[in-house]
């Protein structure tokens, strides 16, 4: 086990581990660390955490120093320059007639590189654009193509629920999401109902999936026969949230009645079902179109 701190370089981004060395840091402090991109300025979001060696990307680097007021001013100056670079790059894209959408610009802390993030339908030959930008900024230029989910994470916005997008407010990484999750949660398969601003399946489909998976193993299947104190019946519906089973009963006089039974109150019995082979995990469908998924 190693004692580490967690540092985040973007407001909502992945957390990276570093050794605090002799520094006594608290959450919210800003530090200067060395990364593969050079010197970086980040915020401490985790302190005094012990993690196994397997969770650490070797070699574990040590925090160089606590950020100073001069470092803070440099970060603010970089943000100002990023806005200017965004406007310049947009004009250069129009000049070269490239089919690409500029999303964001990032200056590295030490100004050794400028990264331009963009989206495009396919591959873009931006070699001439890079040369043009390098001539303007006199530093290393990197153009990085990103997906629609990353674009939504950077741009932000409000989801169908009326709250800020999860990806831009607290999600550090994207988790696999599949159309099977929507089916198992009895959600509408209308693309407008289960897709986010990015046009892909909403990340929140994954939040309750574990609960639904557990309840499917405990609750009877719809259409299966069950025994209740009021006689034999057939399952009409399962409510995975309230854990209530809706059963259609055929009474002795031939009439039909529908009653509700709680799963754990012991009022009905579920016949033991033969073991079924484990289904393969759904494939990650993050980058597939909703329409294509619904054809399955």
List the helices and strands and how they pair.
Elements: E1 2-8, E2 15-18, E3 30-35, E4 38-51, E5 65-66, H1 69-96, E6 101-107, E7 113-119, H2 127-137, E8 140-145, H3 148-155, H4 166-169, H5 179-184, H6 191-194, H7 209-218, E9 225-228, E10 231-239, E11 244-250, E12 256-262, H8 290-294
Parallel strand pairs: 7-8
Antiparallel strand pairs: 1-2, 1-4, 3-4, 3-5, 6-7, 9-10, 10-11, 11-12
Helix pairs in contact: 1-2
3D architecture notes:
By secondary structure, the protein is α+β, with helices and mostly antiparallel strands. About 25% of the residues lie in helices and about 25% in strands. It has helices at about 70-95, 125-135, 150-155, 165-170, 180-185, 190-195, 210-220, 290-295; strands spanning about 1-10, 15-20, 30-35, 40-50, 65, 100-105, 115-120, 140-145, 225-230, 230-240, 245-250, 255-260. The strands form three sheets. Strands 2-1-4-3-5 form a five-stranded antiparallel sheet, with no helix packed on it. A hairpin with a 5-residue loop joins strand 6 (about 100-105) and strand 7. Helix 1 (about 70-95) crosses helix 2 (about 125-135). The chain starts with a strand and ends with a helix.
